[in-house]
Amino acid sequence: MDLTTISTIRKIIHVDMDAFYASVEQRDNPELRGKPLAVGGAAARGVVAAASYEAREFGVRSAMPSITAARKCPDLIFVKPRFEVYRAVSQQIREIFAEYTPFIEPLSLDEAYLDVTENLKGMSVATEIAREIRASIKAVTGLNASAGISYNKFLAKMASDLNKPNGQAVITPKNGPAFVEQLAVKKFHGVGPATAEKMHRLGIETGVDLKAKSLQFLVEHFGKSGPYFYGIARGIDERQVRPDRVRKSVGAEDTFAVDIDDLDVATQELEPLAEKVWSYCEAKGFSGKTVTVKIKYSDFTQATRSKTTALPFAGVEDILGAANVLLAGVYPFKRPVRLLGVTLSSLTNDKDSENGEQPQLGLGF
Fold first, then answer.
1. How high is the pLDDT of residue 285?
2. Among the options 25, 54, 105, 111, which is catalytic?
3. Residue 197 annotated among the catalytic residues of the structure
4. Mean pLDDT over residues 51-77, rounded?
5. Order of strands, edge to edge, in the sheet holding 168-170?
6. In a designed cystine with 326, which of 73, 99, 305, 357 is the match (CB 3.0 to 4.6 A)?
């Protein structure tokens, strides 16, 4: 297949807020503006949830241990996250999107795909739509957004990083295949560090290397992802923007200030996690049939244990009971425990089909 077989060239916009959590904090507290800021816990076990651009100049990145971030940037200011505020701002942004198209696929609180091929404003130029949306976001929230515009989701996502912060870029159907060919595969959206390393071992460093591999080769080495890699190497991504996606799982986890090696203490730590999960599910009107407990040990190795029932769990007590049994199944712990997580999956409710595609939701706990 090539682009000439596509009857209608789609117009996809990927909108990505710039340093979202950190920017909200700087917006709401003028004293933080222009300073290196990290949203997250400053404790030894803390993790950076987001970093301002001033902090990024020192090498501070999201998901970095706070102790490492503080070492890289001695003047780094830590601010506790306010997820309720971020969710409220995210809703404001979503309402702006809805003025242009009903085809909105959120990826997280701070980014989303929009299909504007046919749009509510009757605008023919997607770059103008992206520019208007970014201006509206700035006017309503005071925050900057970047955007990528292209004919598919993969390239729109890649384009949104090209002129960050507070910019936008376009990758046209004519330029898409050539753009992919020169790009390092480790920069591809959807290629994580482990996959990039595997590609490196197979002699795949760039898009042109990936394009040289047959579909059979890619399926043999990458399984279900093989056809996706085969397509994007040619600038082809047929995934549609899906506004009706429902959730696959709801999870909460906690990293402890001190490692735990006692079962009773660990069991007590499961209770607030189960309550957070069930509170969200109850508010949204769904439950699930599978409980999973995640255990991360002091050496950062981890294990998971799951239990699936014929009927959805009826309440937090049932979820907690299953989690307790699963945790007891790995005791005595092979090493002290630094993190525990509880996830409810195989979600169902009266409106959602159990067979639909369901991306995971992270609660940010």
1. 82
2. 111
3. no
4. 94
5. 104-108, 111-115, 12-17, 145-150, 168-170
6. 305
